[in-house]
Amino acid sequence: MRKILLSSSAVLALTAMSSASALAADLPSLKEAPVLAPAPSAWRFEATINGWAPSLIANVGVRNLPTSSADVGFFKLLQHLNYVVPLSVVARNDDFIGGLDLYATGVTAGASFHGQPGGLGQFGGVHANLHLQETVLTGFAGARLAVPVPGLTLFGIAGARYFGVHADVTLSTAVLGYGVKTSQSKDWVDPIIGAVARYDLNDTWFLKGEADIGGYTNSLTWQTFGALGYNWTPHTSLTLGFRALYAYEKQDNGLAGSFRFQQTMLGPQFTIGYTF
């Protein structure tokens, strides 16, 4: 009788084990969750109107005429400003940045020329009237640089700056009643490299800056900008800072002389930016 009970127990145990194995086989296997790649950060766009108030220091030579020089402060320049178009658009995410910056202006200013003995300047200086129309368009793209400073975002950039300049120069001297007027248009492109930075002081205040340099043989440009910014709303920001832009170009006109252009614009800048 005991043997029969033992045999029955063994049969029951084997049956339970078989049922458990079958049930385990029906259950889904437990695997580690796959590691997902981080989602790319969203792009943010900022459109900016730049209220730049520069002074102008320019030396312009057109064809065979001597170089005319003008040094005009902003308030005087404002009286002779024909038009100005200051716009910029920047796109960025956590890793990359790209942007376009446009500054177009037309200005008429008095200038002067002081030549060497034997030239027109020996008569006490030649007075010039200088009319400049110029378009400066800067395009750039870059990638974020790793910096161990909390709150600091730094991008290294590369791009190009286009200059389109039309110059009308009128020279005259009261000594001989001499007067001559000529004009010339030139355009060129300079490659640039530089950096764009932003440092968040807190949720409301920030610092931002830009710097670049570039050019070819007989050509040079550089730009620098620094400002203190304020986040007025989640989408609108204001900045107040200082910008300087330099350009130099010399092109040979053959028998007609050469085109010489050297200009520095520098002064305070107030901007309004909208981010979307």
Topology readout:
Blueprint lengths: L1 H25 L17 E9 L2 E7 L6 E5 L1 H6 L1 E12 L3 E18 L12 E20 L6 E22 L4 E23 L4 E10 L4 E13 L4 E17 L5 E18 L1
Antiparallel strand pairs: 1-4, 1-12, 2-3, 2-12, 4-5, 5-6, 6-7, 7-8, 8-9, 9-10, 10-11, 11-12
Considering the chains and any ligands shown, give keywords for the structure:
mainly beta, Lipocalin, 2 helices, 276 residues, 10-stranded antiparallel beta barrel, disordered N terminus, single chain
Write a short abstract of this structure.
The protein has one domain (44-275): Beta Barrel (Lipocalin). The protein has two helices and twelve strands; from the N terminus they run H-E-E-E-H-E-E-E-E-E-E-E-E-E.
CATH topology: Lipocalin
Q: What general form does the structure show?
A: elongated
Q: What is the terminal-to-terminal distance?
A: 88 Å
The largest sheet has its strands arranged as: 1-4-5-6-7-8-9-10-11-12
- Please indicate the percent range of residues in DSSP E strands (runs of 2 or more): over 45%
Instruction: Output mean pLDDT.
Output: 82
How many separate structural domains?
1
Task: Examine the secondary-structure arrangement and name the CATH architecture.
Answer: Beta Barrel
Give a short account of the largest sheet: 10 strands, antiparallel, barrel
The beta-strand count equals 12
Percentage of residues in helical conformation: 10-25%
Alpha-beta classification: mainly beta
**CATH superfamily name?**
OMPT-like
Tally of alpha and pi helices: 2
CATH class: Mainly Beta
The H-and-E topology, N to C, reads as HEEEHEEEEEEEEE
* Poorly predicted residue ranges: 1-27, 115-124
Radius of gyration: 34 Å
